[in-house]
Every structure is written in C-alpha cells, then in structure tokens.
Design a protein that fits this description.
By secondary structure, the chain is mainly alpha-helical. It folds into two domains: 152 residues, Helix Hairpins (Orthogonal Bundle); 71 residues, no CATH class. 78% of the residues lie in helices and 4% in strands. Strands 2-1-3 form a three-stranded mixed β-sheet. β1 and β2 form a beta hairpin. α1 packs antiparallel against α2. It is rod-shaped and about 130 Å long. It starts with a helix and ends with a helix. The structure holds zinc ion. The site of zinc ion has 9 residues, from loops.
Amino acid sequence: MAPSKADFTLLLQLHEKDLSLDDMRRRISQVPEDVAAIQTEIDDEKTKLESVHAKSNEVQAKKKDLETTVAQKEASIKKHEGDLNQVKANDAYKALLKEIEDAKVVIEELETEILELMEVADEVSKEEKGIKSEIEGFTKEREGHIKELETKKTELEAELAKGEELRKGALESVPSELATLYEKTRERRKGIAVSRLHDKSCGECRVMATPQALLDVAKGSKIVMCDSCQRILLPGEKKETEKEAAA
Ligand SMILES: [Zn+2]
C-alpha cells in the first residue's frame, strides 16, 4: 500500500523523537568524560600539596640532623673539659683547648644554619597552609560540580528510558515498509534517516532535488530518496506566510 501524507507526518515525528533521544544519549555519555577531567584537576591540586609537604619534611629532617651534630659537639666539649683536669703535659693541654675552641666554632656555624632552616620551615609551612585552604575550597567546588553532573545524568537516563518507550509507539504507528526503510537508513546514514527539503535542496547534503522529486515529495504519496545522500526526503518547514495561506 502506498504511504499517505499522514504516514510521512508520523515518520517526521519519529525522526524528531530520534534526534532528541540521540542528543540525550550524547549528553549522558559526555558526563563520565567531564567527571574524569574534573577529577584530574582535583588530583593535580593534591599533587601540589604533596610536593610542598615533602619539602617541609625535608627541611625538618635536615634541621634534626644539624641539631644532633650540635649535641654531639657539645658532648665532646664536655668530655674535653673533663680531660683538661687529667692531662699533665702542656702540649696535650693546649691541643685539648684547641679542640674545644674548634668545636665551639662549629657549633656556632651549625646554629646559624639551624636558624636559617627555621625561617625556611616557616615559609614552607605558610605555603602549605595556603595551598591546603585553597585546595579545600577548590575541591569542594569541583566535587559539587561532579555531583551536579551525576544528578543531571540520572535525570537524563530516566528521561531517555521514557522517551525510548514512546519511541516504540511512534515506530509502530508508521507503516512497516516505511518503518523498516527508516531504521535501515538511520543505521547507514549516521542516525539521520530523514532529510527535509530546504529551498528545493536536500536539507542534509544540500544537493538540489530534481523537479520530479520535489513534486513527489509535495504530493506525499510515495517514498522519495535523496539521490545524493540516500535519505528519505520530506517537505521542508512551512514558512509563516504559507501557513497563513493554508489556514
Ligand atoms: Zn541528501
């Protein structure tokens, strides 16, 4: 049985439904990608904090080393001072005094170095605090965004499921020959099986339709395929003036 104008209207409705469902699917599949990108941003910030934290540990460890050396030097001074009372020879006495003096010089140098390290530690700790609070705000904001995206995805999935049910009905309402052609064409033509005319040309591939094709599409009593992109040609959207004239 030849299709009627009403059948082509149903086909157009099916096509429009598919466009909107495909758009939903695209938006749903985009979400995990967007979430992963945000997660990477969060991880990068955390890496920044880890590196400052490592720097802080390094400074503390170095300071501890120097303090240990100071303590050793102080112990050796104490020992030498004790030894001073024991030695009788003048040379040995002088040598001990020199050792004590040398150790005191070294301690002074080490203490200067320790003070400098404490200043560095202060700065690193300030930097660490700054990054920490920055990350807290940043992470909170980004995690909020992830949550929004996931909520949107759940909503879209529910909407898609409903739409897919309605789509079944829309497909069944189209005569089977036309429906089969539509499904096959949709598969072959990247999901777009229908093309509406636009100024006598195919709306999808922009190739001009033949006068006969234009006539047949306008009549709406047989299936017309675009010669170029092999999609089902349907009448274009009516302009306001035409709609008024038709009314
Ligand atoms: Zn075409």
